[in-house]
Design goal:
Order of helices and strands: HEEEEEEEEEEEEEEE
Radius of gyration: 23 Å
Largest sheet: 8 strands, antiparallel
Shape: globular
Number of strands: 15
Structural class: mainly beta
């Protein structure tokens, strides 16, 4: 301290300022969840995706427009529990889904990203899936909604209270490692092993499961397919 006026030297003032600033900087710096990257798309390359390459799977006796709309960049898909399956004689349940048939993959590390919305009342439904698995299974991953919560299949809750809001979904599938990771709104939520299979692809929409509600709906925008850069 300067004996003449009682003030701190310039260097001491700077040190004190930095010490006071440090807690604020730390509080504003986001930390990755559980050690995972905060941006799940880091290291991935976005692939071209044309709207014309998005195939809509819907009840076989209805036109696409009866179960799907695309307005202002938002896909709306809906189905009723009394609807027919996607093909005559199919044992599967009713659905209205976007099949990303432009990218059927056999190897590598792939990622699905989209923003989804599920209105209150939709339940007992798969809204996103990674198709392809070793027989007798058909899928490697399903994200389902039951009574307002987002589940991995039907036994693990990933996010409660998912109704009536937009949320971002990122699913990373490492085929060789048989590993899948799920992020919701950029936060790591779940990791699991795959179920084999020789090929895979992504789907989103509504696909009735057990105890399905009479009416099922989901909305999607910003759909992207990405592949890890070698």
């Amino acid at each position: 301290m300067d004996a003449r006026d009682g003030s701190l030297p310039t260097t001491s003032k700077l040190t004190l300022f930095l010490l006071l600033l440090l807690p604020l900087v730390s509080a504003l710096t986001p930390l990755p969840s559980s050690g995972w990257p905060s941006d799940p798309t880091a290291g991935f390359e976005e692939l071209p995706l044309n709207q014309s390459n998005l195939h809509i799977q819907k009840p076989y006796d209805l036109p696409v427009s009866a179960r799907h709309s695309f307005v202002d960049g938002v896909h709306k898909l809906w189905v009723y529990s009394t609807d027919h399956p996607l093909s005559k004689g199919s044992p599967t349940r009713p659905r209205s889904e976007i099949f990303l048939n432009q990218y059927i993959y056999y190897s590598g590390v792939w990622q699905f990203e989209a923003h989804g919305y599920v209105p209150c009342g939709t339940s007992g439904v798969c809204i996103t899936q990674v198709f392809g698995a070793q027989f007798p299974r058909n899928t490697t991953l399903m994200l389902r909604v039951y009574n307002g919560s987002l589940y991995y299949y039907h036994d693990t809750v990933l996010v409660p209270n998912i109704y009536d809001r937009w949320f971002r979904v990122n699913i990373i599938h490492d085929v060789a490692a048989s590993n899948l990771k799920v992020y919701i709104d950029g936060e790591f939520k779940f990791e699991t092993n795959g179920y084999g299979g020789t090929f895979h692809y992504f789907k989103c929409g509504v696909y009735a499961q057990g105890n399905a509600s009479y009416y099922m709906e989901s909305r999607w925008k910003g759909i992207r397919v990405l592949k890890k850069v070698d």
